[in-house]
Structure formats: C-alpha cells, structure tokens
Amino acid sequence: MSEKKLFLLPDLGEGLPDAEIVEWLVKVGDVVKLDEPLVSMETAKAVVEVPSPFSGKVTRLAGAAGDVIVTGSWLAEVELDPNLPQRADAQDTGHSHGHGGHKGAGNPVPDEPSRDDGHATTVVASDEGGEVRAGEGAAPKQGGDAGTVVGAMQSSDAVRSEQAVAIGGVKAMPAVRALAKKLKVDIGRVRPSGADGVVTMADVKNAAAAGSAAPVAAAPAAYRAPEPAVARAPSPPPARDPNTKYDSDEPIRGVRRNMVRSMSQAHAEVVPTTLMDDADIHAWAPGEDIMARLIRALAAASAVEPAMNAWFNAKEGTLRRHSRVHVGIAIDSPDGLFVANLRDAGGRDPQEVRRELNRIRDGVKNRSLPPEDLRDYTMMLSNFGVFAGKYATPVVVPPCVAIIGAGRLHHAVVPVLGGLETHRIMPLSLTFDHRAATGGEAARFLRAVMDDLQKAR
Questions:
Q1: Does residue 25 sit within a domain?
Q2: Same domain for 194 and 332
Q3: Is 124 inside a domain boundary?
C-alpha cells in the first residue's frame, strides 16, 4: 500500500495565523510533482502560490476557494509515488511545519474515508457560511513573538513564489489570477501583453472594462428611443457598488481580518496619549510635496528626540531606539488598510521619496507588494486629511511607539507684527505609547516636526 502524507499549511512569512484559498491549481486525482504549484493562497498582505512538498497523487484537499485555512492545519493529502523525486525527510523544504500538536505534520497517515483527522477544524470561514466549531481552529502557538500584525515581524522561511506560472496554458502571477476571479474575468480568454505571453494586471482590467473575457456574455441592451427634453430633475444619489452585499452577515477576510487583529491588539496593550498642534506652512513654495515634507520632518525630529522612533517589547521589558527611520505609510484601499514601509526616510531626497511613495501606492493597488514591504517600520504616518478631518487620535500598533497624523490643510488668520495675515495651516496629531515614552519626549518630538515643516525649504 502506498504511503500517504498530509501537507500542512506553512507559515507564509507574515506572522499571521491563517490564509484564504484563492484557487486550487490541482484537483483530487491529479499527479503533482515536487515543488509544482499546488494552490494560490491570500493572506492579509499578499497572494502567493504554495508549492507541493511531495510528488504523487492528490487524494484530498481541504476546503474550496474562499475558505480560510488555519496555519499548521492540513491543506492537502498526497499519496507518494516512489517513481517520482521526493524530498528527503531531513531536508529543509523552505516551509514551516514545526507547529507542535498537529497530527500528521509531514508524517504518514492511514487510509481514511473522510476528512476528519481528529484535530483543529481547518475551515474557519466559508463563502457558504459554514459553521465554525467552538474550541477548534485556533492558531497554533509559535516559537517566539511573531504576533505583531502591523509592525515589526520576525522573518521566517516564507513561501514566496512570485513568478508567473502556467496553469491551464495561461501564464499569470497569483495576484493577477486573484484579480481575474474578483472581476469575474475568464483569464483563459484574456489576451496577454507581458513578456513570454504573461497575462498582466492591465490585461485583466482592460478585459473587464471591455467585457471581452466575461464567463458568460451579457445580452446586448435593448435599443431605447430618445425621450423629449424635459426640465432637469435633481441629481440622483450615487449608485451603490454592485459588488457590495447589503443586509447580510459576511465573513471578514484578508486585509480586514488583519485589521481586526491588529486593532484589537493595540487596544488591549497600548496606553495611548495624543498631542495635537498646528504647523504654519505659509513659507512653503507653491507645489511642495506634502508627503515628502512630512517624511523629512519625521526623520529630522527623530534625530532631535529618538524616543518616538522605537519599538517597545512589553513582554521582554525592552525598548529599542532605531538609528534609521523607516516610516510605515497608512494606505487606504477597497480591501482595507495597508501599512507599507518607506525605508531609510532620512537618507532619501524628496524625488526619491516621491518615487518610493508611488511604487508603494501602485503595489498596494495591484496587490503586488512583497511581504518585506509591509513590515519592520519604526514609526507610522497617516495623512488622513486628504479625505477629511483636522485632528484625530491615530492608533499605535505594537511594537511601534508612535504614529503621527496629518489633518486637512486649511487657512487661518494669525496675528503678526503690525496686523493680521492669512496663513496655510497643517493640523498634526501625535499618538504615543505612554508605557514607552514620557510626555516631554513626545512634546519635544512634535515640536521638532513642526519646526522642520515650518521651514521654507
């Protein structure tokens, strides 16, 4: 009788306890070879393809597209083929299988007629609204503190396969396949424009806009004769997003699941205190890059008062002040909140900062940023004023000690020698973890930010 092995969902390198199935690249009965793509998985930060650690016939798969799998739970069962190459038991697979307490973690399993392996329920959320079993499905305990969700994360032997892989004759990145699925585009009917016949994000978006690759062609709209002109009626309210489901309970997925965890952690751990003040930026030349000036000011203030550019580890009772300033930029997206790392802010000129901001913005939009760009920042910045609001109480997420928010720019009348003038004002809100810093340190840091922002250049 052939030996069967369970493949456990590995740590995908982001410190998160689960991942969502985007697309199975194999089906039960298929023969898969060592390191061939097995499944596309979406975490809170990226879409990655997970390769098979075995060669043989696929006998079971855990869940379907849209199901959430707990890290360390079984993902697939493979009946080993002795005639195909196998990885030695002691050889590093590049995956993290070391989640104690999970039965069959790379070990032979007996022939079983059903999925039940007697341990944690794998599917914790389902498009079908499946039941979550109480007391099961909890994330396995990790060795070491890798639980910082939006902040510094420990590196691991992550599975990061970002190459375009041919599936069903179509070459595409995992994120492109996920986008096609979301836009209901048949990726097999999309004309590729990338190198070596790779389907790109732009190809999928163009096909969706043109309707040229829809799974089912929509019927043409019936001709409607023009109506006689009438008095203009009030503008109708904005149309609702057709992809939004109303009046029903939907499982929280992906980036928003991460947001739930990180905000809950921050609320439970941090002792937040917020200082607010205004920077008078009337001396700026026209066309100044607001974000580039903010980032420069954070780097300058960190040199004056390093207490805000730090990580606090309450469990170990340690505080690490950083010599370099890595700014976590809060980026709003339809999928939820991303925090991307703009590294070495103090060592970049304004043009470099703008190029990096554009790269980060496009990477979030296309879901193409690697996990390394979504961690290890030393302080955080939110430019919420581009939407609305002057002041706020931004949330500090451990292990960071501080976050600064920039509110909506406005004009205010200010007294000057000999009279009154109208100046442009930038509201600032600094939230810091009072466990790790004093009020004086925070106030000096905010003062240094304001001083740099108020310079003409």
A1: yes
A2: no
A3: no
Q: What is the DSSP letter of 290?
A: H
- The sign of the dihedral angle between the CA atoms of 414, 432, 392, 239 is positive
3-state secondary structure at position 208: helix
pLDDT digits (tens, 9 = 90+) for 190-218: 888 887 788 888 888 888 888 776 665 55
Question: Listing from the earlier edge strand, what are the strands of the sheet with 56-61?
Answer: 31-32, 56-61, 74-80, 4-8, 108-109
| Residue 191 domain flag | yes
pTM for the model stands at: 0.61
54 and 203, same domain (yes or no): no
Q: What would the pLDDT profile of 134-162 be if each residue is shown by its tens digit?
A: 344 444 344 433 333 333 333 333 344 44
Contact residues for 177 (Cβ-Cβ < 8 A; gap 6+):
22, 23, 40, 47, 167, 187
Range of the domain at 446: 268-453
At CA 168, angle to CA 42 and CA 218, rounded to 5? 80
- As a whole number, mean pLDDT of residues 396-419 equals 94
Q: Looking at residue 184, which CATH number applies to its domain?
A: 4.10.320.10
Residues 6+ apart with CB under 8 A from 185: 179, 204, 207, 208, 213, 214
Q: Are residues 86 and 200 in the same domain?
A: no
Q: Is residue 95 within 8 Å of residue 34, measured between CB atoms?
A: no
The answer to whether residue 10 is domain-embedded is: yes
**Number of folded domains that form the chain:** 3
Quote the Cα angle for 150-151-157, to 5°: 90
CB 290 within 8 A of CB 383: yes
Q: How far apart are CA 60 and CA 27, in angstroms?
A: 8
Residue in this structure with the two tokens 């849209």, named with its chain if needed? 66
CATH of the domain at 73: 2.40.50.100
Q: Is 453 helix (H, G, I), strand (E, B) or coil?
A: helix
